Amino acid sequence: MEKRVYNFSPGPAVLPVPVLEAAQRDLVAFPGAGCSILEISHRSKTFDKIINEAEANIRKLYGVPENYRVLFMQGGAILQFGMIPMNLLRNSGKTADYVVTGTWTKKASAEAKTQGSVRIVWDGKEGNYNRVPKAEELKFDPNAAYAYICSNETIQGVQYPREPDVGGVPLICDSSSDFLSRPVPIEKYGLLFACAQKNAGPAGVTTVIIRDDLVARSPEDLPSLLNYKVFAEGKSLLNTPPTFAIYVVKLVTDWLLNTIGGLEKMAEINRKKARMLYDAVDQSKGFYLPHAESASRSMMNVPFKLSSDELTQKFLAEAAAVDLCELKGHRSVGGCRASIYNAMPVEGVEKLRDFMLDFAKKNG
């Protein structure tokens, strides 16, 4: 078998080895089906059980109330950037509030402007998106169609420690890069969505958790696959869904429930992993420079810089030589970035931390 490296990619990202092994076992013949998981019909009893169990697992992990739908959609986060204003803003006569904390909320607000009126409540551009806003910096419109945030910006490595207070306005959240990484009070959200390829499965499926009153707001003149109400009525089966991706989401959520022990435990592990890397950065006496301000630091994505491009390239090359891979930072931030999602083992983060300390000692 090919040796596995420690993969710090921001997405598609590392998956739990037990999940990969289970998928491998089922690839040729799924138990009871007599054919591959890739070959079963989305209308079959076998797949019906898989998708229902995936939904039940998400509901259990997050404590999703009964008045919310759990949908499995395609098109990734970018489709949601357009679908949300299509369904909740267009023809509403209202404005949508967006808090721009990085690349993904910037893209989402631009997409929303194609469908209606958007108000930027706060924009972190001045600091190159190195923090989330303080509560006193946010003044939401009480009559807005909705208020939109991204809980964790993958590229800039900033994360909300808690939800902002938006009053009675529906709170919409892109949770793609910290989905299932910690407990979340779903009842505070009108809609929370996440593409799977960061924390929950392979690319190809997006989970949307949406409250019933928002489902009902979908206008009738939208195409069926862009209409939350029609999609919910079809129970995510309007067309052929990404069956294999949903199956892996089911396996990942099984792993979270049965092996990890739930989201409280997962969050504890994630805090431990993040602390290791931030301590290595902070104790380096300026050798490593963090991008995010301390109070806004992400548990999932840890961006940092070195003093020169030459030193950065040396760091990346030497790290890859010891199986610490995909650490290059995004071009808009530069430097390095370690994405330490749920499935990144503690041992991988320990190895990266030790490498960072040794590299700083030798090159500082």
Summed up, what is this model?
With about 375 residues, this protein is of the alpha/beta class.
Number of strands: 14
Total helical elements = 10
Quote the distance from N terminus to C terminus.
38 Å
Give the topology string: H per helix, E per strand.
EHHEHEHEEEEEEEHHHHEEHEEH
The share of residues in extended strands comes to 15-25%
Mean pLDDT: 96
- Assign the CATH superfamily of the largest domain: Type I PLP-dependent aspartate aminotransferase-like (Major domain)
- Spatially, the strands of the biggest sheet line up as 2-10-9-8-5-3-4
Poorly predicted sequence stretches spanning 5 or more consecutive residues: none
Residue share in helix = 25-40%
Main structural class: alpha/beta
The CATH topology of the largest domain is given as Aspartate Aminotransferase, domain 2
CATH class of the largest domain: Alpha Beta
Shape: globular
Rounded to the nearest angstrom, the radius of gyration is: 21 Å
Q: Give the name of the CATH architecture of the largest domain.
A: 3-Layer(aba) Sandwich
